[in-house]
Every structure is written in structure tokens, then in C-alpha cells.
Amino acid sequence: MMAVQRGYTILIVPLGTALSSLEALRFFFWLKRMQELERERDALLQGLEMVERVRDWFQRHLLEAQRRQKHMGTEASYFPDPYSNQSCLLLAKIQEVNLCLKNLLASPGKPEVPPPGFGGPLYPPGKKEFQQQAVTVLKEQNHLLIKEVSEKSDRIAQLEQEKAALCKQLKETRGYRLPSHKESTFI
Question: Coiled-coil intervals in this record (predicted)?
Fold first, then answer.
């Protein structure tokens, strides 16, 4: 199902009275409210489509995680997942999405009666609980960013060492002195 985005038009219907009449004003506000409701409906339909796609995505990844977990002990030699950093980033994004969905469900303006298949009524999280969740997500993201910066710094240091070794090797093979990277730096 693909959401169709469409433009909105304003219909002007002459009422046969002055523009400042009460009827014209009521009609204007009614029309404006109808447009708002139409936009809200379109946004909800688009959100519903995304939720369906996200549900499929979650199910696929859940099955894959269960498969990896099941086969984890059966492998003769265990090598750490080379994508564990990506896995941590994915976990942080999933937690962030879950928090956003929870906050959406707890937001005011939702229907009073929950749709069938949902648990009991959801209440908005307290300010302290929300702040704790936000701090937890931010700490996890900060930890991942620090880890990524550290890995990149290590990689840069490794590349600098390799560069120095290659320059030294080139100097020895050519028999003349190459300027070091410190000497070639412009100030």
C-alpha cells in the first residue's frame, strides 16, 4: 500500500452576503477545520503504512537474531561479529524508535478506547521517567560515538606509522633523504 500525497485546494463559495457575516466566518472556519482533518487523516494513513513496513522489518530482524543466537553455540570456533559496532548503533536506533513510539502512544489526543489487540490503557510517562529514558539513550549514543572516535583515532595513528615506515623504506631504496611529514608541514 503506497500513500498518495496530494495537494489541498481551497473552495470559495460566495454566500451572497458580506465577507464579515457570521455565516461566511463559520463556513471559513469549517472549511479550514476540514482541511486540517484531511491532513491529519493523510498523515495517519502514511504513518500506518510506515508502521506496517516497520513491523515487517522488526519481524525479519527478530528472526535473524534468533537464528544467530541458536547457531552461536554450534559453531566450532567463535569469532566476534565484525559488525558489532554497527549492531550497537542499530540497537541504539531501535531503542530510540521504541521510545518515540511509546511517547506517541502516550501522547494526548489519542482515542480514549484503545483499539482491539492492545493491552490496557497507556498513561503518559512521568517527567522523571521520560528524562531518565532520554538520558539513557543519550548516554548509549555518547558511548558509541566515543568508541567510534577512539577506533578512528587508532586507525589514524596506525596509518601514520605505516606512512612513516613507507617513507623510510622509500628513502632507503632510493638512497636519498625525503623530507619528513614534520618538515613538509606549512606554518
Answer: 142-176
pLDDT at 173: 87
| Confidence at residue 71, expressed as pLDDT on a 0 to 100 scale | 84
What domain range is 128 assigned to?
Answer: 83-107+124-174
Nearest to 99 by CA among 73, 74, 135: 135
41 within a domain of the structure (yes/no): yes
E-strand spans in the chain? none
Residues 94 and 64 in one domain: no
> b/e per residue, 35-72, with b = 16+ CB within 10 A?
eeeeeeeeeeeeeeeeeeeeeeeeeeeeeeeeeeeeee
CA–CA gap between residue 181 and residue 175 (Å, rounded): 18
Average pLDDT of adjacent 10-residue blocks, the chain of 187 residues: 58 58 80 91 93 93 88 64 69 87 80 44 53 76 84 90 90 71 56
Are both 90 and 33 inside the same structural domain? Answer: no
- The answer to the question of residue 137 being in a domain is yes
Round to the nearest angstrom and report the end-to-end CA distance of the chain.
60
DSSP state, 126?
P
Q: Are residues 88 and 170 in the same domain?
A: yes
Please answer whether residues 116 and 108 qualify as being in contact, where contact means their C-beta atoms are separated by less than 8 angstroms: no
